[in-house]
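The aim of this short unit is practical: by the end, you should be able to scan a pair of folded records and say something sensible about each. We start with the first protein, listed as its amino acid sequence and then its structure tokens.
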Amino acid sequence: MFGYYYNKSLRKLIVGFGTLFSNIIVHHENGTGPTTKIQVPITYSSQEKFIQRLLNPSSITDGTRIENQLPRISFIMNNIVSDPSRRRVRFAPTQTLTSTKGVCQNTGTQIANEIPVNVGFNLFIYTRHVDDMLQIVEQIMPFFVPDHVISLDLNENQSTVNIPIVMISNNMTDRYEGDFNSRRLHITTFSFLAKSYIYGNIANVTTIDSSDNNIIEFD
């Protein structure tokens, strides 16, 4: 209807959000040996899908049972809502100067100005031990007081856009069903809100670099 374009604004936001939690470390103290350091893997996945992967091990042709190891983190984008309170003018022309054979020409690009959106994210933490959960939570919460700002290159005209990410809430649950041989699973859910933007199509335009004015005087 309006023609194809794709600035990858939302894709870059998802990658930027996930990168925030890609360096979480958990320490396991050993009474008779050195401390074990575990970097917690992070995956883009919903909670329901991830729990099924954790509680239902798969198998391969040689009969070896494969099971996901804890702790792990997953996250998912759950909604996108327009934010009229941050809306500005529709068009934001950006001019660039080019030179051809020593003659300066004024050209530029024009982009339909950003549509401010509030993007919701859920972050899920899965651990077997309570202490692992507490270590991860302490590495996350102090950085959101109440928000954390990330800078993203959302398109060729907006190379540095500051996006506040606000922590909305968190919830801790203990999933444990069955006998003592069943896996015990601690889950913490964080809700975040990213105040981001979606941009329109970027078009090349010719800008006005000079004008001639004729003034006529009347007696």
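Turning to the second protein, read its sequence before its tokens, just as you did above.
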Amino acid sequence: MRIRESKLIYDGWTRFLVLEVEGPDGQRVTKAVLDHGESACVLPYDSERRTALLVGQQRVPQLYLGQAEPSLEAIAGRLEPDEAVEESIRREAEEEAGLRLRELEKVATCWASPGVSTERIHLYLAAYSPADRTGPGGGRAEELENIEVKETALSELARRADLGSITDAKTMLLIQTLRLRQPHLFA
């Protein structure tokens, strides 16, 4: 396959393109691409108290589909231009959850939705303790984030994962990875 033509439709917080793609047999098809850049995500957990810090946030696409309740998610955000992944994770943890992170444990780098988006997301786990809390968090007011920080028992997260009520894929992946790597924390 190869790209024959690219049209930029929208250029703002993200970019939206329409591409004409040609297959090996010469057949052409139009595809939409959301050029979103890279993101980073972390699930902070306290192994002593067996808790994790997550955030609750109402998401506009979910609201559009009729889901009014906030989504429960691991801390995440887009990388700023020329920002290192670990720097982004630490910045997002401070902004969203009022949390200073030290050591980060890499899990994976995955495509968020490869059929339509260029976004790759870097996934991490990070240990924390109450002494690492620096403030209330809540996100950036100018972005209407209105984030609620939720410290949740790991056993409760495992229960929700087993019931299928963790609906955010990156959060589910990080919970399950922590369960595999440190199952004793979920007992």
